[in-house]
Design goal:
mainly alpha; about 80% helix; elongated
Length: about 220
C-alpha cells in the first residue's frame, strides 16, 4: 500500500522539478494541465502516456513508471503492465537513492505479476520478473525462477540467453559457454550468442574459436 512505500510520487516529482530547466518545467506543467481537463478514459490515457514519455526523456524513470502504471490501471492489458514494469525495472538499475530504488522495485514486482496474471504462458513476463529480483537483496530468487523456466522451456532462447548473461556476470564462464552454445544449436545466427561466444573464447585464450564466432557477430 502507498503508506508503506519508501517514498511518495509527489515527493519524487517535487525533487525532480527542482532540477529542471524552465523550458522542461513548462512542458511538464502543460502536460499536467492536459491531464487535469481530461474527462474520458481515452483522454486520460493519452495524457498519462504523454507524461510518462516526457519524464522518461528527462531521465526520471521512477516518475515515468508511475504514469505508465496509471495507463495500465485503466487499460489493464498485459502489454501496458509489462511497459510499466519495464520502466520501473530501468529505475531499479539506475536509481542512486535507496528510497527511489525500493519504490521502483516494489512497483516493478506488482506490474510484472499483473502482466503474468493476464498471460500466465508468457515467458517474457516471467523473465522480466526474475531479472528484477536479481537487482534486489534476493538475487537467488531470480536465479531460481530462471532455472525453473529453463526446466519448463529447455529450448527457450530468451531463458538460455538470460542465464548465459547472468553466468558471465558472476564470472562462471564455463556455464555461460554452455548456455550460449545451446542457443547456437537452436538459432545458429543468433547475434547475441555469437558475440558472447566470441568474447568467452577470447577470455579462455582460444583465439581460433573466438574468431569463428566473431565473424558472425554484428
Amino acid at each position: 500500500s502507498a503508506n508503506l512505500e519508501s517514498t511518495d510520487i509527489n515527493v519524487l516529482k517535487r525533487d525532480a522539478l527542482e532540477n529542471l530547466s524552465v523550458e522542461d518545467k513548462n512542458r511538464i506543467r502543460i502536460a499536467e494541465q492536459e491531464l487535469s481537463i481530461a474527462e474520458s478514459d481515452s483522454a486520460k490515457v493519452a495524457a498519462y502516456i504523454d507524461l510518462s514519455g516526457a519524464w522518461y526523456r528527462l531521465q526520471q524513470p521512477a516518475i515515468a513508471g508511475f504514469y505508465a502504471q496509471e495507463v495500465a490501471e485503466v487499460n489493464d492489458t498485459e502489454e501496458s503492465w509489462s511497459i510499466a514494469g519495464t520502466t520501473y525495472a530501468i529505475c531499479v538499475q539506475r536509481a542512486s537513492e535507496e528510497k527511489v530504488r525500493k519504490f521502483c522495485t516494489n512497483r516493478a514486482f506488482i506490474s510484472f505479476e499483473n502482466a503474468i496474471s493476464l498471460n500466465p504462458n508468457s515467458v517474457q513476463h516471467k523473465v522480466n520478473l526474475a531479472l528484477t529480483y536479481l537487482e534486489t537483496e534476493a538475487p537467488m530468487t531470480g536465479i531460481q525462477m530462471l532455472l525453473t523456466l529453463n526446466q519448463e522451456h529447455p529450448e527457450n532462447v530468451l531463458v538460455l540467453t538470460t542465464l548465459g548473461e547472468q553466468a558471465i556476470r558472476s564470472n562462471q564462464l564455463e556455464k555461460a559457454l554452455d548456455r550460449f552454445l545451446q542457443v547456437i544449436a537452436i538459432e545458429p545466427n543468433n547475434n547475441k550468442a555469437n558475440c558472447a561466444l566470441a568474447g568467452l573464447y577470447q577470455q579462455m585464450q582460444q583465439p581460433q574459436k573466438a574468431q569463428s564466432y566473431a565473424s558472425k557477430c554484428n
